């Protein structure tokens, strides 16, 4: 399927010009994601200075928030506009966080076993087709053994007629001939994560409209 990941940059330019908080438009829209992450962090008991990577960090809303807890944060996104926005947000909020323009499908500049936690910044549902195992493989490679990867992604069930360009066969939404979002079955998404080598610790599904969400907490076993 045809993809155009860089097209997100145009969206970020519009959002920033129109004084939105980020991709989710308002600060309140990020609260649910923060609640889930805080619950998971409470069980992990990461030490101060633990290294956390957010894949698809966007305008840095989550990365900067996590930096307030005195972790060592890195965010990566393909959009130059989003990364500039994230860097400005970190300066405004007085936290240290590193942001890089990059492709989440190729993290070759990051060494193996670098991070104590890797977070999917609502990015995985934007990754299409054969690129999905590449995304998971890179996440697996850069997280440390016995450490965790958190997925937060759109899934079925969906209200198909409310999703513009939705195709039931591929379970993707399209803009013209370009696939932009994947709404997989929860069990299929979990199977992808397991196939990448992760062990699923727990998962939960949040039913909603027009789509649902699945949150997966997975660990990289020491091999």
Word description of this protein:
This protein has 223 residues and is α/β, with parallel strands linked by helices. The chain has a single domain (5-220), classed as Rossmann fold (3-Layer(aba) Sandwich). 30% of the residues lie in helices and 30% in strands. It has helices spanning 8-17, 31-44, 61-67, 80-93, 131-142, 186-195, and strands spanning 51-55, 72-77, 97-101, 115-120, 143-158, 166-167, 172-175, 178-182, 198-206, 211-220. A seven-stranded mixed sheet has the order 3-2-1-4-5-10-9, sandwiched between helices. Strands 6-7-8 form a three-stranded antiparallel sheet, with no helix packed on it. Helix 3 links the parallel strand 1 and strand 2. The radius of gyration is 17 Å and the shape is globular.
User: How many DSSP-defined strands?
Assistant: 10
Helix segment tally: 6
Structural class: alpha/beta
SSE order, one letter for each helix or strand: HHEHEHEEHEEEEHEE
CATH architecture: 3-Layer(aba) Sandwich
What's the name of the CATH homologous superfamily? Vaccinia Virus protein VP39
- Physical arrangement of strands within the biggest beta sheet: 3-2-1-4-5-10-9
Q: Helical content, roughly?
A: 25-40%
Strand content: 25-35%
* First and last CA, distance: 34 Å
Instruction: Name the poorly predicted regions.
Output: none
- Largest pleated sheet: 7 strands, mixed
Rg calculated over all Cα atoms: 17 Å
Q: Give the CATH topology.
A: Rossmann fold
Considering the chains and any ligands shown, give keywords for the structure.
223 residues; alpha/beta; Rossmann fold; 6 helices; 30% helix; globular
């Amino acid at each position: 399927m045809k993809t155009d990941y860089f097209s997100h940059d145009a969206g970020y330019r519009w959002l920033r010009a129109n004084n939105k908080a980020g991709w989710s438009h308002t600060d309140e829209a990020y609260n649910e994601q923060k609640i889930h992450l805080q619950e998971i962090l409470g069980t992990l008991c990461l030490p101060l200075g633990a290294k956390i990577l957010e894949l698809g960090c966007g305008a840095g809303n989550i990365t900067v928030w996590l930096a307030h807890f005195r972790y060592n944060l890195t965010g990566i996104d393909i959009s130059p506009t989003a990364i500039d926005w994230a860097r400005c947000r970190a300066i405004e909020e007085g936290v240290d966080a590193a942001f890089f323009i990059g492709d989440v499908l190729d993290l070759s500049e990051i060494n193996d076993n670098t991070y104590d936690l890797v977070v999917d910044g609502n990015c995985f549902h934007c990754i299409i087709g054969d690129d999905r195992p590449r995304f998971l493989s890179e996440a697996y490679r850069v997280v440390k053994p016995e450490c965790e990867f958190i997925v937060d992604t759109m899934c079925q069930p969906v209200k198909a007629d409310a999703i513009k360009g939705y195709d039931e066969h591929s379970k993707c939404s399209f803009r013209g001939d370009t696939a932009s979002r994947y709404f997989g079955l929860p069990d299929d998404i979990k199977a992808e994560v397991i196939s990448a080598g992760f062990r699923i610790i727990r998962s939960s599904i949040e039913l909603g409209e027009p789509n649902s969400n699945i949150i997966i907490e997975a660990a990289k076993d020491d091999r």
